[in-house]
């Protein structure tokens, strides 16, 4: 799959979207909230954190609505339903009440939403139904989106500070997990393929990748740390 110093290294994963492509790699940094702020709040601080969370929800819902429109226009309403479903999750009163209840207990907004969504994500991931297990990734994506707003951070490519970084344009993107948002937002840059550590054939992201005609492979452990940016790889989405 990759040549390094005249030697070939071959990885085998799960084929989730067909097609064959030869291109160089861009590494996408996904887990960017390892140092998430966590602090206790009380008094007026509780109302302030609830207001921050409410504003983050509004912003993410608006972004999901924009993605829904984009996907409807470019692919179709069925695929756009992925983002409609995510928006509905964020509008669920029970979920919002749980996050606010965590703030009432003295947690800041970041910690409150992480604790709540991690709990639901863990429950789904433990179920035997593969389709339902894949829905856990939607919760993980929503958590990252909310934290991006609260922490004023954005997903980025590992070498984005380098002036020569192509930011996915005419590249194969390697990341930990393919999410629907990544599939759509990077695809606009001329993305040629995906290689990920996690994600199954029934994941929303895999469905979008197939609809967009982007070859993709998943299930290669620690692949994000095994291939340097700029490495030329041959990706076979037909065989994995």
What's a concise summary of this model?
The chain is of the alpha/beta class. It is 47% helix and 18% strand.
What labels describe this entry?
two-stranded antiparallel sheet; 7-stranded mixed β-sheet; alpha/beta; globular; 240 residues
Question: Can you tell me about this structure?
Answer:
By secondary structure, the protein is α/β, with parallel strands linked by helices. The protein has 7 helices and 9 strands. α7 links the parallel β7 and β8. The longest helix is centred in the first third of the chain and has 31 residues.
Q: What order do the helices and strands follow?
A: EEEEHHHHHEEHEHEE
Q: Sheet bearing the most strands, described?
A: 7 strands, mixed
State the secondary-structure class. alpha/beta
Distance between the termini: 10 Å
Number of helices: 7
Averaged pLDDT: 85
- Molecular shape: globular
- Please compute the radius of gyration using only Cα atoms: 19 Å
Q: How many β-strands, per DSSP?
A: 9
Low confidence ranges: none
> How large a portion of the residues is in β-strands, by DSSP E?
15-25%
| Amount of helix | 40-55%
